[in-house]
Amino acid sequence: MAGLNVSIAFFLSVVAICEVIRQVSKRLLPLGVYRGLVRELVSSLQLCACCLELRMLMEIGPWGGGFGPDVILTLLFITYLIHGVSFDGASANPTISLQEFLVMDSSFVATAVKLLVQFVGMEAAGILTTHYWSWELTDFHLIQNLMALDCSSSIHTSLYHGIFVEGVCSFFFHLVALKFQHSHPLYRAPVLAVIVTTLAYIAGPFTGAFFNPTLASIITFDCSGNILQEYVQVYWLGPLTGMLAALLLYQGNIPRLFQKNLFYSPKSKYRTPKGKAVPGLKQTGGNGEGQLQLRTKPWS
């Protein structure tokens, strides 16, 4: 368990350092620079660094540390829960950034900058984690360094099935994220952590269940077993297709591409009140038009 404790300390250290960077940057830098650059870069670094360590535990832990999938899934849930609370509105996911562009919540330039800094954060996480592994604080890291030059692909199924799996995972993730997009982070984060953990448990044996192109790029794109074109099809085309399907199902259109709602008819925000019968008035029909007549009592 000593190796597991070191990994947990690494998770906490990365989160703490990234949170300090966020808070200092928020106070010293203009808000636009913080939101468009620093927030996405730091969150991408945090996500990728923690997932690299978690991936190492998943591959080596069962036979090197004697702990099973339940430990990995618990750590996955906790890390994503912490990410959801600490990201401060960042996505660290290219498909979410592209979704914000398609619903016209972000401009083309802002989206391009987000995608760029997400990949910068990914590369920084790879450098940080590799340097940390080189210290060989545990036997896990020693084994990881020996295996690093000969890692295997995360795709353990056919190409088309892999695209389908990543697309379905992305579809459900984005559908839930859209449903809870306006909820408080304290409510939204546990829900997303549960859906990520569930999808990882179900689809992990097939493709790793990344449904995040940046995360997949740093973890498995350099491994043998598949060519770059196949990786791009599974981990880029699949999640993007799932995101588009979720967005279309959720609101019936894609505002950046077309405004017409394909599934849902617009509801008027004004409701016509139903009138009540007035005593002494009688409604009669004449030529299809309603007429009102006054009831009077005959003179006695």
UniProtKB/TrEMBL annotation:
Record's bilayer topology term: Multi-pass membrane protein
Coiled coil (residue ranges): none
Molecular function GO labels: channel activity
Cellular component terms (Gene Ontology): cytoplasm; membrane
Annotated spans, Disordered: 271-300
InterPro entries from the UniProt entry: AQP11/12_channel (IPR051883), Aquaporin-like (IPR023271), Aquaporin_11/12 (IPR016697), Aquaporin_12 (IPR023265), MIP (IPR000425)
Record key words, sorted: Membrane, Repeat, Signal, Transmembrane, Transmembrane helix, Transport
Protein location: Membrane
Signal sequence annotation: 1-18
Membrane-spanning residues: 159-178, 190-211, 231-250
PANTHER family documented for this protein: AQUAPORIN, AQUAPORIN-12A-RELATED
Family: Belongs to the MIP/aquaporin (TC 1.A.8) family. AQP11/AQP12 subfamily.
Protein name: Aquaporin
Organism: Gopherus agassizii (Agassiz's desert tortoise)
